[in-house]
Design goal:
The termini are close together. The radius of gyration is 25 Å and the shape is elongated. Strand 1 and strand 2 form a beta hairpin. It contains 15 helices and two strands. It folds into two domains: 296 residues, no CATH class; 91 residues, no CATH class. A two-stranded antiparallel sheet has the order 1-2. It is mainly α.
């Protein structure tokens, strides 16, 4: 029998894999070129007219790298462009957003305890907010074009804090932090697509036409690239946060997300300063540690716990009323709820793994798809089958889920 749920699970896995691969490529090239630019020796009179140079050794070979402040005298052959890594990362990330949060909006995006809105409204807010992020950021860059760049970064941080709070008032905790990451990643990728690459194409066109390129295009592109450099680490944290309830399932999740951006700045400041051969500002590690301790405290003071609702809603009702639910409910209580409870009784657990609770009918219905995939089709749960779930019980889970979905 063709299993649609299994297909979507594998589709999600494939897109997530692609997203991670392309993100590694983009982040790697971004970090490399920022470090390269900061480490160039600019105190040498180079016959080529380049602004700086550096010798590097890697993989058994030596590399002699030179950078031209604006452009070389003539257009070189075989020019390599670094853009597809960024585009592929954003496109795969948005595809993953659709697969997980739009298709599964009733479970992952909308939380009636936060804001009771329709799925189409939630998806609309999601898409509109990503576009708004670029408009706000690009406007700030233009307004502060001649100002102190530190002032611009402060203004950008204020926008990120405001959006962090906004998302926490609209979406589930998991979706709120994920969307803040997508909001930031959209700005970063748009920087490449809308500013950096177009500016570089203008310079290339001038070279081909025999005109002297304007230095302002390179300066603007460098500004946006630097911003991306400081935003990268927080985006990675936010993308990983959906696996850690201590990050998203807290009443202070928007403050946690805001502090993560400050940690990104302190960490990148250390490495950027070191690569520029301006010393080792070790104070940044102390600042980062303090920020992280603040985050860990906020995550547990107190934990945000949804009160069980008395009645099932929407898709949940379909699973509660499906044939075999009573048996599955008993299986969950007997095999899973010792860990997946508001107050776990399994030794060493102080909160439910991944924030998943399987005590009430509604909670079990809300996690029907995950139960089906991890305990029905596969033996992922219980881990190492510590509670001795039997094959017959797994078969009942499969039958119940398929009865509810018509699969």
């Amino acid at each position: 029998m063709y299993d649609l749920a299994a297909f979507w699970a594998w589709a999600e896995f494939a897109v997530r894999w692609l997203h991670v691969i392309t993100a590694i490529a983009w982040i790697g090239s971004s970090f490399y070129f920022i470090a390269l630019d900061l480490g160039l020796h600019r105190d040498r009179a180079l016959s080529s007219g380049a602004d700086g140079e550096e010798w590097q050794v890697h993989g058994g070979g030596f590399y002699h790298i030179q950078k031209y402040l604006v452009a070389p005298a003539n257009m070189p052959d075989g020019l390599v462009w670094f853009k597809w890594e960024s585009y592929a990362t954003w496109l795969s990330g948005f595809a993953l957003l659709i697969l997980v949060y739009y298709v599964g909006a009733e479970f992952y995006l909308v939380d009636p305890n936060v804001l009771d809105i329709a799925v189409w409204q939630a998806v609309g807010i999601s898409v509109a907010s990503l576009a708004l992020g670029w408009v706000l950021y690009n406007t700030l860059c233009k307004v502060f074009v001649d100002a102190d760049q530190t002032l611009l970064m402060v203004a950008l941080f204020a926008v990120l804090v405001a959006m962090s709070w906004f998302y926490a008032q609209v979406f589930s905790g998991r979706a709120a932090l994920l969307h803040l990451g997508a909001f930031t990643a959209t700005i970063m990728s748009a920087n490449v697509f809308m500013i950096i690459i177009p500016n570089q194409k203008i310079v290339v066109a001038d070279l081909i036409a025999g005109r002297e390129p304007d230095a302002k295009y390179g300066k603007i592109a460098k500004q946006r690239s630097t911003h991306n450099n400081y935003l990268t680490l927080p985006v990675i944290f936010l993308m990983l946060s959906n696996h850690y309830p201590l990050a998203f399932a807290s009443a202070y999740n928007w403050i946690i997300a805001s502090l993560v951006f400050l940690m990104g700045v302190t960490i990148r400041h250390y490495f950027n300063t070191m690569h520029a051969r301006k010393g080792h500002p070790n104070w940044t590690w102390a600042a980062t540690a303090i920020l992280f301790l603040m985050i860990t405290w906020l995550s547990t003071a107190p934990m945000f716990q949804d009160e069980p609702r008395e009645e099932a809603m929407g898709a949940e009702l379909r699973f509660v009323q499906a044939e075999g639910f009573e048996e599955v409910h008993d299986i969950m209580l007997g095999r899973c709820s010792m860990c997946h409870a508001q107050e776990p009784v399994w030794q060493g657990l102080h909160w439910p793994p991944k924030g998943v609770m399987l005590e009430t009918e509604v909670q079990i219905a809300r996690h029907a798809r995950a139960i089906y995939l991890q305990s029905g089709l596969s033996h992922a749960m219980p881990p190492a089958n510590l509670s001795w779930m039997e094959d017959e019980e797994r078969a009942r889970i499969v039958a119940w889920y398929r009865a509810a979905t018509g699969g």
